[in-house]
Write a structure and sequence with these properties.
123 residues, mainly beta, 4-stranded antiparallel β-sheet, elongated
Length: 123
């Protein structure tokens, strides 16, 4: 009942930048945390960054200073600004959102994943 639409992936040269977006829609009552994960070929999915409804952020230690997460609460949208990209940043990036839905006046917790967007850093 919560649908996520990601955009902004693509191919970029080393040192370049990309901005990912993820918009959540559906029977959303409230959103707690919005975040980005990534999964490179042959590796486990890992947290990139997350942001709470209050604006607190959490980043993977290796990405601090290069990646910035932000959100627009009114649009239920989370962004990931990625700068100084490196070949090792190549992966499928997934949006993750959790919160509460409301249907027929009943609230329920939800966790949703986006379909993933490919980011390729290569010369």
């Amino acid at each position: 009942q919560v649908h996520l639409v990601e955009s902004g992936g693509g191919k970029v040269q080393p040192g370049g930048s990309l901005r990912l977006s993820c918009a959540a829609s559906g029977s959303i009552f409230s959103i707690y945390t919005m975040g980005w994960y990534r999964q490179a070929p042959g590796k486990q999915r890992e947290l990139v960054a997350a942001i709470t409804s209050g604006g607190s952020t959490n980043y993977a230690d290796t990405l601090k200073g290069r990646f910035t997460i932000s959100r627009d609460g009114a649009k239920n949208t989370v962004y990931l600004q990625m700068n100084s990209l490196k070949p090792e940043d190549t992966a499928v990036y997934y949006c993750n959102v959790n919160g509460k839905t409301i249907v027929d006046e009943r609230r329920a917790d939800f966790v949703s994943w986006g379909q993933g967007t490919q980011v390729t850093v290569s010369s």
